[in-house]
Amino acid sequence: MSKADLLEQWGDYLARSRRRSPHTVRAYLAAANRLAERVGAEDWRDVANLDAVALRNQLAARRADGIGNVSAARELSAIKSFVVYAREQVGHGDAAPPRLRGPRIKRGLPRPVTPDEAANLADGVASLASDHWIGARDRAVLLLMYGAGLRIAEALSLTAADLPLGETLQVTGKGGKQRVVPLLPVVRAAVADYAQRCPWPLAGKEPLFKGAKGGPLGQGMVQKAMARARVALGLPPTATPHALRHSFATHLLSAGADLRSLQELLGHASLGSTQIYTKVDAAVLLETYRKAHPRER
Questions:
Q1: The dihedral of CA 16, 17, 18, 19: what is its sign?
Q2: pLDDT tens-digit profile of 208-242?
């Protein structure tokens, strides 16, 4: 088995079994390739035998290239996962990742958009599209993210077999974890409108959302459509597709949703990932206070 074979198998595992996004797969493959190249790994046993010292040296080499804390943390996560996968392939006695602490990253608060901005963005992508069915498609994707809290990859992983959408939807998220999310009537109506307008056949396990030429819709096209709408509406660069998911979370929290329920709806593995929205909610409240209070004017 060559290094190329290792990377091909690893990439296939990430994409199919772990359901990682294309961006993540590319980043993880690049990190694994750098590690394998540096240590001269030619088979899974070579990778499985790497210890914390080897990974620390690899991270130090990348640091010397000038990468920052965020990139270093991602690099470490990728190569540790690569080693764990290798150990599983060869039946290594210790399948746990090498014990190595990554750099500390100051976690910034998500930047949600307001309900009006979310609605305007959904309508904006529809009005700016090159074709009516493409506009209906982009609007449906954005409403799934804002109205149901789906990640962009989760929305694009839906198939024609999911039609017609009911009051709830079973979603497969990161790590193959499944959850059930409720669907608002406006979201169901938007998806139904797109399905009726779509000129390409929608059947079986084919992707629900189609590209202009009938292939699967890529994340990049949704991001570009939202970027055009964002510019037209004068919204900041933080108004990305993923910001709609943040908005779903913060607006539910503002309406009184408890953290455990929100965790389930978002598909977070740990409550800690969900707790950040309590800070967002407080930050939004403070900003509203500063704008509205007469002494702050």
A1: positive
A2: 999 999 999 998 898 898 888 888 888 878 788 87
User: So which residues are the catalytic ones?
Assistant: 151, 174, 242, 245, 268, 277
pTM over 0.70: no
Residue type for 225, please? Answer: A
| DSSP code for 160 | G
CATH class of segment(s) 3-90: mainly alpha
Domain ranges of the chain: 3-90, 115-241
Measured distance CA(81)–CA(79) in Å, rounded: 5
What's the number of CA atoms in the CB half-sphere (13 Å) around residue 226? 29
The owner of tokens 């039609």 is: 163
Average pLDDT over residues 7-12: 89
Q: Any idea which fold 115-241 has?
A: hpI Integrase; Chain A (1.10.443)
Element spanning 32, H or E: helix 22-39
Q: Are 223 and 241 in contact (CB under 8 A)?
A: yes
